[in-house]
Design goal:
With 325 residues, the protein is α+β, with helices and mostly antiparallel strands. 39% of the residues lie in helices and 25% in strands. It contains nine helices and 16 strands. The strands form four sheets. Strands 8-7-9-6-1-16 form a six-stranded mixed β-sheet, with helices on one face. Helix 1 runs parallel beside helix 2 and helix 6 runs antiparallel to helix 7. The structure holds ligand DP6.
């Protein structure tokens, strides 16, 4: 019996950057995100009689760190379900892998959802969120649709995401792709380096807690402009903390900064748009759904070389075929 699940990437509006516990992936800060309706990952898990787990991404057998991360999630599910067998995992991505477009968030949310089903683990969404977190921190948010907040917590039990209701105008995220190349430094390495060497990291942690509270209040109030302003602040502060690392981590390119500038110009023309960027040069622009095509036109006019994809709020991870379908 094969269990197949789909999950979508999420983009953090209030960023997660830095861990307080590397093994369990307990973050130094809480975060808040929007799950998108583009670039899904579909993952199938089949229990097997073989002597080891086998993991394929887009048909290619994974080894080393990537397959170890999958095994961490499978081990946790074996522990929780009391079943000992191995699994065959096949995953198909539709997003350029490792280009700062949150492919790992969708991948580990889909994996946790499919594997829990395959191993017969009766997991609610909170438990799935905690399991997905073990593979990649940001994945705990992709278990949920739309806006979700990851409560940092202090241990495995207390570190999970939960959905927030958004009563403001329908949201869109215009993804400006300036590069689909694999990043030179993984976010995991860059995060650790920032924690260990950046003099700005403590300030990032303190200021993030206040920002997350403000953003949560703005989400509850449906206050789009405040959510947007805080989104841009959080991204720039996160990148500032990386600039302070030794050696420095710089994911933003000249093209990324040109997009940030274009978004400032859009705002001065009365369009509510706010830029954010993750561990890569691509820029995501938060705006109202009904203004998304206008935002794409304006950005294309200024930066015609980038590719633009419009995303809206998307679904949480879910079983497509399997016991829980
Ligand atoms: C910049 O979740 O990929 O996208 O927990 O080490 O797997 P690991 O890191 P990951 O980091 C995402 C960082 C970010 C910001 C965010 O999504 O909150």
């Amino acid at each position: 019996m094969t269990s197949t699940a789909t999950a979508h990437p999420n983009i953090a509006l209030a960023k997660y950057w830095g861990k307080r516990n590397d093994a369990l992936i307990i973050p130094a800060t809480g975060s808040l995100s929007l799950t998108l309706d583009v670039f899904p990952t579909t993952t199938s898990v089949t229990l097997s009689d073989e002597g080891a787990d086998a993991v394929r991404l887009d048909g290619v057998l994974l080894t080393g760190d990537e397959s170890n991360r999958v095994r961490t999630v499978l081990d946790r599910i074996r522990e929780l379900s009391g079943r000992t067998g191995h699994a065959r995992v096949e995953s198909a991505n539709t997003v350029p892998t490792a280009a700062g477009l949150a492919s790992s968030a969708a991948a580990f949310a889909a994996l946790a959802t499919a594997a829990a089903d395959a191993f017969g683990l009766d997991a609610d969404d909170r438990m799935l969120s905690r399991i997905a977190r073990r593979g990649s921190g940001s994945a705990c948010r992709s278990v949920f649709p739309g806006v979700a907040r990851w409560n940092a917590g202090i241990d495995d039990e207390s570190s999970y995401a939960e959905p927030l209701s958004w009563n403001g105008p329908p949201l869109a995220m215009v993804v400006g792709i300036v590069s689909s190349q694999r990043k030179a430094v993984s976010s995991r390495t860059a995060m650790r380096r920032t924690v260990e060497t950046s003099p700005y990291f403590p300030a990032w942690v303190t200021s993030s807690a206040a920002l997350l509270d403000q953003m949560s209040d703005a989400v509850a109030a449906g206050d789009f402009a405040t959510v947007g302003e805080l989104t841009e602040q959080s991204a720039l502060r996160m990148h500032a903390s990386m600039f302070g690392a030794v050696p420095p981590v710089r994911y933003l390119s000249a093209a990324s900064l040109a997009l940030f500038d274009a978004v400032v110009t859009l705002r001065s023309a009365g369009i509510d748009a706010y830029a954010t960027a993750d561990a890569g040069p691509n820029v995501k622009v938060l705006c109202r759904s009904d203004q998304a095509s206008h935002v794409v036109d304006a950005l294309t006019a200024t930066i015609p070389d980038a590719e633009y994809v419009v995303a809206h709020a998307g679904p949480g991870s879910h079983i497509v075929t399997g016991k829980g379908a």
